[in-house]
């Protein structure tokens, strides 16, 4: 599916994706912020690739969960097929509102999405609410690989 029409996924698949992101958050290395994030990427073959944030003693070098998941997907040879993304923050920290990927992660996700010509659904998971947005809504007019020809 291309950009413009919002992708939807079945509720069981959504549950599976969110559970994978929640489970990934447990593997976060976040000793400095203690803010553990998990991300899960759903591909069109039904497979899921996860990531969690990896912080560093040099604070500014922290890697977000979404970026780690995308790097893992590229490392497995994936170059597209991204249907949906779930991002889950800690239940017991912050305001409990759905967390959205940071600006850098939106761009990183866009690379994988644009390569396969998809506009993935992003499930931003909060304590009491799941916010569903298209990546193109989070990053409109995105710069991507197509611009380079
Ligand atoms: N973080 C993520 O992993 N993903 C997001 O979408 C927001 C922020 C991480 C970065 C850092 O390790 C911690 O959360 C606090 O910002």
What does this structure look like?
The protein is α+β, with helices and mostly antiparallel strands and 149 residues long. Helices cover 32% and strands 19% of the residues. The chain is built from five helices and five strands, in the order H-E-E-H-E-H-E-E-H-H. It has helices at 11-25, 65-75, 103-116, 135-138, 145-148, and strands at 38-43, 48-52, 82-88, 121-125, 130-134. Strands 2-1-3-4-5 form a five-stranded mixed sheet. It is globular, with a radius of gyration of 14 Å. The two termini are 21 Å apart. The structure holds tetrahydrodeoxyuridine (THU). Tetrahydrodeoxyuridine (THU) binds next to helix 2. Tetrahydrodeoxyuridine (THU) binds at residues 30, 33, 35, 37, 53, 55, 62, 64-66, 87, 99, 101-102, 105.
Question: What is the topological layout?
Answer:
Blueprint: H1 11-25, E1 38-43, E2 48-52, H2 65-75, E3 82-88, H3 103-116, E4 121-125, E5 130-134, H4 135-138, H5 145-148
Parallel strand pairs: 3-4
Antiparallel strand pairs: 1-2, 1-3, 4-5
Helix pairs in contact: 2-3
The structure holds tetrahydrodeoxyuridine.
């Amino acid at each position: 599916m291309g950009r413009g029409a919002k992708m939807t996924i079945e509720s069981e698949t959504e549950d599976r994706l969110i559970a994978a992101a929640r489970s990934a958050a447990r593997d976060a290395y976040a000793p400095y912020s203690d803010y553990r994030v998990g991300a899960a990427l759903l591909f069109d073959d039904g497979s899921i690739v996860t990531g969690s944030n990896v912080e560093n003693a040099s604070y500014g070098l922290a890697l977000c969960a979404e970026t780690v998941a995308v790097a893992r997907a590229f490392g497995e040879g994936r170059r597209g097929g991204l249907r949906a993304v779930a991002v889950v923050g800690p239940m017991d920290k912050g305001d409990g509102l759905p967390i959205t990927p940071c600006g850098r992660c939106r761009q990183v996700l866009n690379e994988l999405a644009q390569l396969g010509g998809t506009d993935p659904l992003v499930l931003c998971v909060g304590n009491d609410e799941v916010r569903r947005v298209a990546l193109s809504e989070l990053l409109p007019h995105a710069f991507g690989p197509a611009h380079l020809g």
